[in-house]
Recover the amino acids of this structure.
């Protein structure tokens, strides 16, 4: 059957997507290293792994939503709410414990995610509109009810700072000082693995793919679309909560106006990683590669000496190009 | 056969006091291939839904495998082995063939964790039942519609189907694929699985079915053995009217200039060396199965499919048609095959749909749309084409297929076309409306419009065209005046050529 042979080729091209992205990452790294040799050092790479972890975790959340055929614009507001509330509760209660911080931040994330999930599955409103709305509602409530004053480094409970400095292993440099593999990177990888497992090996995960592929068919097949969507937005909420804690532990400063506004730079790596913006198709590996590429780009711009304002410009370009490319590919494969 | 698989007795259904089904009896034997035909609104879909347990009949009983149901629930119907394959197939395009086939079973078994080996084994087993091979790892979006149907059939078989109901299964597949589907159905028959076909295409019904049940206005006209029927008797039973089967009468006027000429038009992988002429008042038929290149040629004439080489002449002047806008300015109109998606703005009003090709004429002196002018304009066309509408404000999606098609035609006539290309103008339209559309098309030709009519239905082409171009594999394999060929000859010509293309 010619049909089968042809479509095999298409499939190869699609999985090649990730190979191409890896290739570009390697080529680009070599280019930047030739301009600034300190770039490709083990130390810098581990550092990139650490600083990109919170972006990566949010990206995984966004990936799951996109997969289901939806979009979440509110996760930045959820992440900052989780972080800021956790920091303030820890200060007020005097409990200086990072697990407690995670618990609070995740509960906030779960709660806000559940609100998204309920509105979306109950009222059947387009996810973009709902989450764009809740982005502002969540953030607005945070600023008016919880507060607007930033928690500075001196006020920040020690557990955050200690957590931010925790390495799984440490290498002492001969000339003094040390570096190592941050716990952040490990958490990111663990969450990526967990998400991959859920999506590949559980009925729930396959249902996420199914509703992203064809919502109507999913209903007819007897899937409970309501509970699947509810799960997805709760899951994104929790991931945002975790990312929020990582973020404050990294920069040792909690400002309730941070993160919000950076939605696109989280969506960018996901789309770059080959996740279809219309849902149903994408991989965790692709998302991780996307995060790596964006991190690389942002980091190298500074190393090359371009102003960080260029980051926004490049992020926008990347989203535009990768979305156009994938829709072009789909169109081409349909026309053959 | 000793006992029928399914018997329906005296089933009636009322919707808001209107009888959708009126004491209908029907029985389907084990392993029988049964066709259900009827015009739109004849009650076919209601009957299917009743068999599936989705709709409850107000009167009557349903006997499945000897067991009588007064109150059939969907789950009862499924447990008795009845599976409906809806027209849209309800598959997941982004999932693999294997997963699409086995997903239902996994849901049913309430498994939390997926065992991929099991998923593939389930799919493999079912595919071997229908003796077909498909790449289990391939995503469904990458396979042909015909193969998608096989996936849907497999999914039905997994639930131990004993009766598979297919709603309009052949609308989008080629003749070759229809034959393949038919062979699958014959295999199922051997296993004692019955098939209930719902179809609009009469020639196919006659080819496939053993028994045919005809519905009209909610009543059963009768059960027939397929052998007793032919195209004319079947369309008579369906519509209850003697359909005018007069042949299009064209008087050639040798003085008339050629309106459209296509010379050696080729597009790589689609069509080659296409040459033909159309004069005013002609209806030129283009016949060929799906994939023969017929639609691709039409799209090229409308500026939607750039050819690699060749020339198009309009009024004996060479022209370059690189956009629909250009085509319209040259007086070419195109009625697409997929009327719902390409021909209409379904949710917009009838009025908006008609005026859309000609908004410029409706502008007031402030360059805004003049609403009363717009209404008048739409009204003129609706009257002219006798579109049956409750009001001009009604959304087009509420109209019947025949009336929708008239709206599309009206929209294009409003541009005052010289050349009108109609791609499968009567697909999915019931027999009576069909003949009205045909009359309308003849009327266009009388008004000196050159018409190109694309279709895969032999009788439609023979009765309405004065000249026929037979297409296969992207080439015109034969050009013939209609008076020189009979329906049977043309049918043989078309089917032999589409068989060749399998080669």
């Amino acid at each position: 059957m010619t049909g089968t042979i042809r479509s095999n080729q298409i499939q190869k091209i699609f999985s090649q997507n990730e190979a191409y992205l890896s290739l570009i990452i390697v080529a680009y790294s070599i280019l930047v290293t030739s301009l600034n040799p300190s770039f490709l050092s083990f130390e810098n790479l581990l550092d990139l792994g650490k600083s990109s972890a919170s972006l990566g975790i949010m990206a995984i959340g966004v990936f799951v939503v996109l997969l289901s055929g939806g979009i979440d614009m509110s996760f930045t507001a959820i992440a900052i709410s989780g972080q800021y509330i956790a920091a303030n509760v820890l200060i007020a209660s005097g409990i200086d414990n990072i697990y407690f911080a995670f618990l609070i931040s995740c509960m906030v994330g779960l709660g806000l995610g559940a609100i998204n999930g309920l509105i979306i599955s109950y009222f059947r409103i387009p996810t973009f509109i709902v989450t764009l709305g809740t982005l502002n509602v969540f953030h607005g409530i945070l600023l008016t009810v919880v507060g607007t004053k930033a928690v500075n480094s001196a006020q920040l409970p020690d557990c955050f700072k200690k957590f931010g400095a925790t390495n799984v292993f440490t290498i002492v440099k001969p000339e003094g000082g040390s570096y190592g593999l941050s716990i952040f990177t490990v958490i990111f990888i663990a969450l990526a693995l967990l998400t991959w497992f859920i999506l590949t090996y559980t009925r729930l995960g396959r249902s996420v793919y199914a509703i992203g592929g064809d919502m109507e068919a999913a209903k007819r097949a007897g899937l409970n679309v309501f509970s699947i969507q509810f799960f997805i937005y709760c899951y994104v909420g929790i991931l945002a909560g975790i990312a929020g804690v990582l973020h404050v532990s990294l920069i040792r400063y909690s400002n309730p106006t941070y993160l919000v506004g950076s939605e696109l730079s989280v969506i960018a790596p996901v789309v770059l990683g080959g996740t279809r913006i219309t849902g149903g198709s994408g991989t965790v590996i692709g998302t991780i590669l996307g995060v790596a590429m964006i991190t690389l780009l942002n980091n190298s711009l500074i190393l090359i000496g371009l102003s960080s304002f260029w980051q926004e410009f490049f992020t926008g370009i990347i989203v535009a190009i990768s979305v156009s490319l994938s829709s072009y590919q789909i169109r081409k494969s349909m026309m053959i | 056969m000793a006992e029928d698989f399914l018997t329906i007795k005296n089933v009636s259904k009322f919707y808001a006091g209107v009888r959708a089904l009126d004491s209908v009896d029907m029985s389907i034997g084990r392993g029988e291939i049964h066709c259900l035909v009827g015009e739109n609104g004849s009650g076919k879909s209601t009957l299917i839904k009743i068999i599936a347990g989705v709709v409850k009949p107000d009167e009557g009983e349903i006997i499945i495998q000897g067991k009588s149901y007064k109150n059939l629930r969907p789950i009862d119907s499924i447990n008795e082995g009845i599976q409906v394959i809806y027209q849209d197939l309800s598959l997941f395009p982004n999932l693999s063939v294997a997963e699409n086939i086995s997903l239902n079973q996994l849901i049913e078994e309430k498994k939390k964790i997926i065992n991929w080996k099991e998923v593939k084994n389930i799919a493999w087993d079912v595919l071997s039942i229908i003796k077909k091979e498909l790449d289990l790892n391939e995503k469904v979006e990458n396979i042909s519609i015909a193969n998608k149907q096989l996936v849907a059939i497999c999914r039905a078989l997994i639930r131990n189907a004993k009766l598979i109901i297919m709603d309009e299964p052949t609308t989008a597949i080629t003749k070759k694929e229809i034959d393949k589907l038919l062979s699958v159905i014959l295999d199922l028959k051997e296993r004692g699985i019955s098939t209930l076909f719902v179809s609009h295409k009469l020639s196919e019904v006659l080819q496939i079915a053993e028994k045919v049940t005809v519905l009209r206005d909610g009543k059963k006209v009768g059960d027939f053995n397929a052998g007793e029927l032919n195209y004319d008797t079947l369309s008579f039973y369906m519509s209850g009217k003697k359909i005018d089967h007069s042949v299009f009468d064209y008087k050639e006027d040798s003085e008339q200039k050629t309106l459209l000429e296509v010379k050696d038009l080729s597009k790589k992988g689609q069509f080659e060396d296409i040459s033909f002429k159309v004069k005013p008042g002609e209806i030129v038929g283009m016949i060929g199965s799906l994939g023969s290149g017929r639609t691709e040629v039409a799209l090229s004439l409308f500026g939607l499919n750039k050819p690699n080489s060749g020339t198009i002449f309009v009024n004996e002047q060479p022209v370059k048609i690189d956009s629909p806008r250009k085509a319209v300015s040259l007086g070419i109109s195109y009625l697409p095959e997929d009327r719902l998606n390409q021909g209409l703005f379904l949710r917009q009003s009838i009025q908006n749909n008609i005026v859309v090709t000609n908004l410029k004429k409706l502008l007031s002196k402030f360059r805004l749309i003049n609403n009363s002018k717009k209404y008048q304009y739409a009204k003129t066309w609706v009257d002219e084409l006798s579109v049956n509408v409750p009001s001009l404000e009604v959304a087009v999606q509420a109209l019947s297929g025949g009336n929708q098609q008239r709206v599309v035609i009206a929209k294009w006539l409003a541009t005052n076309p010289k050349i009108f290309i109609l791609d499968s103008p009567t697909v999915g339209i019931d027999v009576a409306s069909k003949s009205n559309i045909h009359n309308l098309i003849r009327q266009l030709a009388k008004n000196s419009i050159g018409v190109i009519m694309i279709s895969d239905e032999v009788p439609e082409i023979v009765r309405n065209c004065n000249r026929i171009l037979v297409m296969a594999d992207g080439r015109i394999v034969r050009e013939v005046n209609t008076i020189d060929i009979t329906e049977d000859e043309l049918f043989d010509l078309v089917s032999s050529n589409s068989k060749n293309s399998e080669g």
Q: What stands out?
A: The first strand of chain A starts at residue 167 and ends at 172.
